Amino acid sequence: MQELKVERCIVSFSDIQGRLRSFVVSGDLIEDLVTSGIDVDGSSVGMTDIERSDIVLKGDESTFRLINLDGRKMGFIMAEIADQPDLDPRYTLRRNLNEIAKVDLKFMVGAEVEFFLLRGDKPADESIYFDSVDEMMSARLMLSEELERMGLKIELMHHEVAPGQNEINFRFDEAVRTADNILIYKMAVKKAARTMGLRATFMPKPFEGVNGSGMHIHMSLFSGSRNLFYHDSDISDYAKWFIGGLLAHAKGLSFFASPTVNSYKRIVPGFEAPVYISWGYKNRSALVRIPSYNGQGSCRIEYRAPDPTSNPYLLFSTVLAAGLDGIRRRIDPGEPRGDNLYHSRDTDTLPGSLEEAMKYAMEDDVLIEAVGRRLFSRYVELKKAEIMESRRHVSEWERRFYIDF
User: Fold this and answer.
1) What is the pLDDT of residues 63-96, one digit of tens each?
2) Does 137 share its domain with 255?
3) 221 plus 78 within the same structural domain
4) Which of 90, 140, 216, 249 is catalytic?
5) Catalytic (active site) residue 148
6) 160 catalytic per annotation
7) 216 catalytic per annotation
8) Residue 232 is part of a domain; what is its CATH number?
9) Chain-wide mean pLDDT for the chain?
10) Which entry of 60, 167, 307, 364 is annotated as an active-site residue?
């Protein structure tokens, strides 16, 4: 920072629910931040109780990057809770990755993060999927430029199915860096949208009758330079067992993949969101699918349940734990499904509510251990409060349906 004459740095960290929290420090505090850490209030962001509110945040210097914020050159760094790491989602994922690194394994993840652009409270356009006369093309180009200034490598962008819905894809990476990039992506998209007089939302289902926004994740497991999911003629046994673990833990995983009350308005038949616990090749109606691939570099498993409100650190930790449990126990995922599962009546389904998903997660020791019992308990407290708050409110549908019942 001194060499580049950068005077200030944005320090960011993930709260338990996966929202990026930030503050700005002057350059003369950077050394303290990356060595001993800086005290901040953790209770106001739901990390700690008010009577024990202070937490020590320590910057991860490997995440430092230069950014351009409104024409001003600044630093940016991700931080973790140094004095209570068992409450930190990012540390939790690093802990899980460090465990598999001991046996020379590396977890690689890519994410497709969908969002809506709004004018006021309505979709900003009426374009369709892959529209060639797309009203939001120039907006996505500006958003992509902002993301690139934040250090993300943009690979593909397009209009999604619903009016106002968009997708900008960035390059896959090792799991912690991808999780960092998801939070940075959401922050940058919201900020850039405001400068264009628009509003970006990552709400899973903001509008009835159209597709909701997902965050499909693509995963591969490497040993050295070898992709363990790849085999010459088909996906490997490791891949099938990993899928078996995802299916076996699917109901509990929903608590982390679909973590809001609104998430379950997205997971209904007919809108390209997964409902049935199943897997298949290229089958977009399945919960887990194997996309087309060409060689081991692109061989991967796609898990289609997550939405953008999930905490990526907790999501990746639990998905990895479920998949490794499948490998450890050699869980057979069953036969791949090639039919349209939205017409199925004989396949088990994902939970229909956040409360139901929480019940399954609380019975799943594999997922609880992946998150850590203290962090899991805190996460449950926050979600119980969210469920109770949602019950207090009367929706427009309830008024329409019941007022003259």
Assistant:
1) 998 887 777 889 999 999 999 999 999 999 999 9
2) yes
3) no
4) 216
5) no
6) yes
7) yes
8) 3.30.590.10
9) 92
10) 167
Q: Which of 15, 88, 114, 180 is catalytic?
A: 114
Known catalytic residue at 167? yes
Residue 396 appears among annotated catalytic residues: no
Q: Are residues 201 and 235 in the same domain?
A: yes
Question: CA–CA separation, 335 vs 138, rounded Å?
Answer: 44
Query: Of 62, 84, 106, which one is at a domain's C-terminal end?
Result: 84
Secondary structure of residue 216 in the 3-state scheme? strand
How does pLDDT run across 276-326, given as a tens digit for each residue? 999 999 888 899 999 988 888 889 999 999 999 999 999 999 999 999 999
**Is 266 assigned a catalytic role?**
no
Residue 353: how many other CB atoms lie within 10 Å: 16
Q: Are residues 289 and 356 in the same domain?
A: yes
Q: Are residues 80 and 182 in the same domain?
A: no
Same domain for 134 and 64: no
Q: Which of 21, 90, 249, 304 is catalytic?
A: 304
Could you confirm whether 41 is annotated as catalytic? Answer: yes
| 99-114: burial string, b at 16+ Cβ within 10 Å, e else | ebeeeebbbbbbbbbb
Local structure of 78: helix, strand or coil:
strand
Is the pTM for the entire model greater than 0.85? yes
DSSP H helices in 210-290: 237-248, 250-257, 263-266
Same domain, yes or no, for 282 and 183? Answer: yes
Please identify which of the residues 284, 332, 355, 356 carries the catalytic annotation.
Answer: 284
User: What percent of the chain is modeled with pLDDT above 90?
Assistant: 70
| Residue 18: closest CA among 148, 155, 202, 217 | 202
Catalytic residue status for 398 = no
Task: Name the residue among 310, 287, 350, 110 with its Cα closest to residue 204.
Answer: 310
Q: Choosing from 180, 302, 307, 364, which is the catalytic residue? A: 302
Q: Number of folded domains in the chain?
A: 2
Q: Is residue 363 part of a domain?
A: yes
Catalytic residue among 60, 80, 88, 112: 112
Q: Which of 60, 88, 160, 364 is catalytic?
A: 160
DSSP 107: E
Catalytic residue among 39, 41, 49, 398: 41
By mean pLDDT, which of 98-102, 121-125, 184-188, 270-274 is the weakest? 270-274
Per-residue confidence (pLDDT) for residue 297, from 0 to 100: 83
For residue 25, give its domain range. 8-84
pLDDT at 232: 84
